Amino acid sequence: MTGVSHSVAMEWMAEGHEYFLTCLMSLTDEEVEGPSRLPGWTGKHLLSHVGHNARALGRLAHWAATGEETLMYPNPSARAAEIEAGAVWPVHRLRSFAVQEQDRLTLLLGRIAADRWQATVVTAQGRTVLASAIPWLRSREVWIHACDLPSGGDFDDFPGPFTDALIQDAVDRRRTAQGLDIDVHATNGGPQTGTAELMRVEGPAVDLARWLTRGVVSPRLRTGAGDLPPQLPPWL
Asked: pTM for this structure?
């Protein structure tokens, strides 16, 4: 994880949710019904995912607050089933759903006592994390998915410290979960992640974040050998 405190991540989560809604409000219902920037998903799929993700993370918040084990999803196929079920709802229902579930998640996170932020919960990927990671998990969802909306947002709008934390998180995950030996260096004062023998990639922090999380290869990125970096598989 990033080492970001839950209080800072809560602020990023709230800011990211407002950014997501701002991007969403700029879209007509017809645009939401059309393709999103994620392959195979419409804007309705994306809204369904964002709403159901808040609901699922709310289960982890309940677990942290009460000690009662409540998994994000009851089985491996439940996440995809929820997304598909919501994707047939009318757009106006999905717009409201994204707001209502975020509000509910914020309420549930507010019920976690100070000593319970160090309790452990299990993510949908089977990783055991501290409860303090829940706001971070949500903040990256709303900021990144705002950029996945049809004609949505842009990584350039992200707060600099959030972008730095996102880069570190993505590098850590690609190293541990995917075995990719990546070392990145932000040429505009962002993070440096160490020395890797296989691949060193340099460029502006925002381009590194796009590449690490969405596989977008910017011409401003270069490997240590001077080449463009390769496209990457999905990071989550």
From this structure: 0.94
